[in-house]
Amino acid sequence: MLIGVPKEIKNHEYRVGLTPASVKELLSRGHQVLVQREAGAAIGFDDQQYLHAGASIVDSAAEIFAQAEMIVKVKEPQPGECEMLRPEQILYTYLHLAPDPRQAELLIKSGALCVAYETVTAADGSLPLLAPMSEVAGRMSVQAGAHHLEKAQGGRGVLLGGVPGVAPAKVLVIGGGVVGDNAAAMAVGMGADVTIMDRSLPRLRQLDAEYEGRAKCVYSTAAAIEEYALEADLVIGAVLIPGAAAPKLLSRDLIKRMKTGSVVVDVAIDQGGCFETSRPTTHQQPTYVVDGVVHYCVANMPGGVARTSTMALNNATLPYALRIADMGLRDALLSDPHLLAGLNICRGQVSYKAVADVLGYDYIDPATAL
Fold first, then answer.
1. Confidence class of residue 240 from pLDDT cuts 50, 70 and 90?
2. Which domains does the chain have, with CATH numbers?
3. Which sequence positions are flagged as catalytic?
4. Which end of the chain, N or C, is surrounded by fewer C-beta atoms within 10 Å?
5. What is the 3-state secondary structure (H, E, C) of the chain?
6. Strands 263-266 and 293-296
7. Does the pLDDT at position 105 exceed 80?
């Protein structure tokens, strides 16, 4: 199979779909790889490394889209990229379609076969291609929150871990999944006063055993969220409904009543955000203030540590890319129901139910669509 890797064009996005090591794996299986010039240069993967791995370097994304049978990216295709897709071409990347009707419309129009990293499942129900970026985003959320709590950044002027004689900051993590667990681990490690909320009692029991009293584990209700958010210096939104829009857990009214200079970090912003006042931001302008509360809502948080993120992502995505390239998309998906769950758009039809429901499209079963 001929596989293409375009350079990412989203604001301050330096990750790349395949590392030179991943390219070498594909070449060893008899496939060909085209890489756009300087696609990975910003994070230390220069063109010479790709050439050494066996890739061919081309000058433009247009050449990649015109020739490749499968496009491997990181972030969702931007409008110009969607318009370069062609019928039966495979797109393998993050899509996050639920809050992005324009992207969905363009992908449907393209006739391409679009596999979304974020909805591929594992046997235990987890999301293996979302997990590495969730780990990164969870850890970064505390790093970003701590920074923006500094007075010079618009925050309350609070040190997350406090010092002897001064209480630490109060951190509320809403959601006890991969993002929430990694956020809590960082916040606990920095000495903060941490509360984790979730609606799964088994998960709360796991987290309680994991943190051994270093973090409070509280069942999530509207009343509990209100109580703890009003006391918090930093609130991290870490909820996820696979493929669907995130629920709004902090209302505008609640945000208005929070401490002036407190910080909210919405890690669910890719899925529309879990705070009513959230809107996507970029690494260039990561924050804005609503009613005295600093909002950090960067839609590609892991892009801030792009080298680490790229390598972590490739560790997870490469085995599936190899399977698709070796077997062809149809056989690869039909032989693996967990990979089949990643098919969101197929030949002009929506083949992921949560996306179809949110955006108002007719749903077609992915196996039927293929």
1. confident
2. 2-120+306-369 (3.40.50.720), 131-299 (3.40.50.720)
3. 96, 270
4. C
5. CEEEECCCCCCCCCCCCCCHHHHHHHHHCCCEEEEECCCCHHHCCCHHHHHHHCCEEECCHHHHHHHCCEEECCCCCCHHHHCCCCCCCEEEECCCCCCCHHHHHHHHHHCCEEEEHHHCCCCCCCCCCCHHHHHHHHHHHHHHHHHHCCHHHCCCCCCCCCECCECCCEEEEECCCHHHHHHHHHHHHCCCEEEEEECCHHHHHHHHHHHCCCEEEEECCHHHHHHHHHHCCEEEECCCCCCCCCCCCECHHHHHHCCCCCEEEEHHHHHCCCECCCCCECCCCCEEEECCEEEECECCHHHHHHHHHHHHHHHHHHHHHHHHHHHCHHHHHHCCHHHHCCEEEECCEECCHHHHHHHCCCECCHHHHC
6. parallel
7. yes
